[in-house]
Amino acid sequence: SASLDVLFLLDGSYSIGKGSFERSKHFAGKLCDALDIRPDRVRIGMIQFSSTPHLEFPLDLYLTKPEVKDRIKRTVFRGGSTDTGRALKYILRKGFPGGRNSSVPEVLIIISDGRSQGSTTMPAMQVKERHITVFAVGIKFPRWEELHVLASEPTEQHVLFAGDADDAANGLYSTLTSSVCSTTAPGCKVESHPCERRTLETVKELAGNYVCWKGSKQPNAVRASLCPFYRWKRVLIKHPSRCFRTVCPEPCDSQPCQNGGTCVPEGLDRYHCLCPVGYGADIHCAPKLSLECGVDLLFLMDSSAGVTLEGFLRYKAFLKRFLQAVMGQDSPMNVGVAQYDNDVRIPIEVGQHKDAFSFMKSIDALNFSGGGTLTGRALRYIARHGFRSTPVFADVQDDLPRVVVLLTDSKSQDPVAEAAKYARDQDLFLIAVGSSFVRAELAEVTGNPRQTIVYSDPQDLLNRIPELQRRICSVDNPEGCQAQSLDLAFAVDASAGVGPGNFLRLRDFVRSSRLHFSINRDVTQIALVVYGSKPHTVFALDTYTSNSALLQAIDQVPFLGDSASVGSALLHIYGDVMTVQKGARPGVNKVVVVLTNGGGMEDAAAPAQQLRDNGILVFVVVIGDAQRDTLLRVAGSPNYLVHISSYEDLQYYQDLIIERICEEAKSPVNLCKPNPCMNQGVCVLGPGSYRCECHGWEGPHCENRVLRGDSPRSVVLPPHSHVQRSSSGLQHFSRGPRHTKRH
C-alpha cells in the first residue's frame, strides 16, 4: 500500500512468441493483485518492446486495479527482434511515462527471455544508478545470466520466474515488503527457500568416431583414419537457486466451513467453501437450502432415446437430491414432474405431494420410455396443460409464479424457438438445465442465457442445485437488461477490411446478444445497420417485436465488401434510426454499439459527438490493431471502448459489453434528447413531461401540416403517454404503461 510507480517492460519479440506473451500478461495481472492500485498509492504503466519500444499506457491513465488488469488483458502481441538495451535507453531518455518524477520510489519489472540482440550491461547499470529498483522476470526458457545483469542487487531477490506465477508474485511481494514497504502483514514472515531455474540450451555432443579420408604428403595419395563426429542437441538445464517468499497463517486454519464443506484459500486472507449438495446457500455451508419463494414449479424431464437410460436415471437422482435439499414441511412451493419423448405425460401433477418422502416414491416409479426428442411439442403442451389451477376458494385464483425447469441432454428434433416463445407468452418462467452440447438450444428455450444452467459432467449436475434454487427464486427479479427500457442500435462493419468470414463472427455476436434483452415495444427495441462506404438499415427499432423475428432478420444480413466509413454510419443512425419516425421512444435511454476492425474511423469523431450531445451513448468495440487516440475520440471515454485482439476472442467479451450497456440503461434520461419533435419543432421540458412547439405543423410531435389557416399549437406530453382524439376534435393525454404506444 505504499506510494509507488511500477512500470512493466514486456518483451513482445518473436523469440518470446504469442503464447509466452499471453503468459507474460497473465503474470503481470497476478503481480497487480499484490499491489494496492490507487491514485495516491501504486500506479501502473506498461511498455512493450521488441525492435523498438512502444508505450502501451502511461502511469497516470488507469488508476484502479480493474482498469489496469483489463487493459493488460487487451494488450496485443507485436513481434520483432529483441532489443532490450534500446528499451532501457528509452526509459533513460523519457523517464517513467506519466510518473510522479521520482517523488515516489520507482520499480521497473522486465518480463523477458533475456535473449537480447544487443548489449544490455551499460543501460542496465545507468537505470539502476537512477535509484530505479529493477526486477527481471524470466519467461519461457530464459538466458539467466542476462537477467542477472538487468536486475537490482541482491539478484536472488530481484530475479523471478514467470513460469510459476503465484510463487513469483509472492517473491515480488516479499522483496517490496523488505525494501519499499518495510513491514509485513500481521502474522507473516519473509523466508528463503530452495528453488530451481530452468533453461533450454544447445550443447555439442560427441556422436562417435567414424572412418574418414585424409590427405598425405605423397602426391595422388590419401589415407584412411578415424575422425570424431559431433551433433548439436537441445537440453533442459536446471540451476539450483534460492528464492524468497512471504509465509502467512492460512485462512483455512480456523476450519470455517461447516457440514463437511471444503475450505479453499484465496490469497493471504480470503477463502471460499465448497459445500456439499443442499448447503450451498451460505458461504460457510451453514443452513440447509430452502425455497422460501412461493412458486408453482414443474420439472419437464427428457426421457427420449437421446438422453439414454443412464441419463434418465441421472435426472431422477438429481430431482431427488433437489427435493431433499429444498422441500420442507412449510415450503411455499408446489412441485410437479412431466416427462416427454414423442408424447408428453404428467405423472406427478403440480402440488400433488406436500412432503419430500411421498414425492420421492413417485419419482422412483417413473419409467424410461425412449422415443424421439420433441422438445418444442412438449413446451407447447406444458404451456396449455401443465398448470391446472385448484383454488382453495371458488373466487380466489392461484396467482403464484409458474416456473418450468427443462432437463435435457439431447438436441430437439422439432423447432423450439417459437414453442418456447409461446410458453413465455403464457407467463411461464423457463429455466433450462443441460450439458454444454445443447447450450445454444437451451438459450433459445429460455430467451436469456442467464436462465440456462450448463453442467460439464454427471457430478457437476448435482453441484448445480444451489444455482437452480437461485434461478427459481429470481423469477420476480429479472437480471441483466430484461426489465430495462432501451433503444439499442448495432452498427456492424461489413467492409472488405473485415472480410466475409469475420463478418459472420460479428453477425453471430449480434445474434447472441439479442438473447440478453426482452424484445418488445415496452422494454428493448433493437435496430441493425451494416456499413461499408455507405450505411444500410437492415431493420429499424420498431420493425420487430420478438427475439425469433430478430433472429431470422439477422441471419439475412448482407456483406457489402467495399471501403469503410464509420462517420457516415453514425450520421445515418442519428438522422434515420434514432428518430421518433423510425420508432425511437422519448424518455428511453439510447445506445449505439459500433463493431469494427478500426478502419474508416477518420470521419467518425464529429458524428459520434453529435450523438452524445443528443443523449445517445456511442460504444465502440474494435477488433485487431488500431490507433487508440482515434478510437477514444469516437467513444468519448475509455469506459465505452473495448479493444479485442482477435475475432475469435469477441465472444468472451460479450458479458462485459452487455453489462456496460445495461448500466447505461439505468441512467437518468433527458426527455428532449434526442429531439422528439419532427419538422423543426422545438422540444420544451416541463416537470416530468415535454411539449413540442410547432411552426406550420401540429400534433404531439409536429407530424401534421397545418391546413387552411389552422393555428399551430403545442401540446404538453408526459413521458410514455397515450394520445386520443375525441369526437369534438380535442386531444387528450393520459399517463399509461411505459412505451405501450408510439406517436
Q: Specify the oligomeric state.
A: single chain
Distance between the termini: 57 Å
Largest beta-sheet details? 6 strands, mixed
Please tell me the overall pLDDT.
81
Which CATH top level class of the largest domain fits? Alpha Beta
Write the layout of secondary structure elements.
Layout lengths: L3 E8 L5 H17 L8 E8 L3 E5 L7 H9 L10 H11 L11 E7 L8 H9 L2 E7 L5 H7 L4 H4 E3 L3 H17 L7 E27 L6 E26 L14 E5 L3 E5 L21 E7 L5 H19 L7 E7 L3 E5 L7 H9 L10 H11 L16 E6 L9 H9 L2 E8 L3 H8 L5 E4 L2 H6 L1 H9 L12 E8 L6 H14 L10 E8 L3 E5 L7 H8 L11 H11 L12 E8 L8 H9 L2 E8 L4 H8 L5 E4 L9 H12 L16 E5 L2 E5 L3 E2 L5 E2 L9 E3 L3 E5 L5 E5 L8
Parallel strand pairs: 1-2, 1-4, 4-5, 5-6, 11-12, 11-14, 14-15, 15-16, 17-18, 17-20, 20-21, 21-22
Antiparallel strand pairs: 2-3, 7-8, 9-10, 12-13, 18-19, 23-24, 24-27, 25-26, 28-29
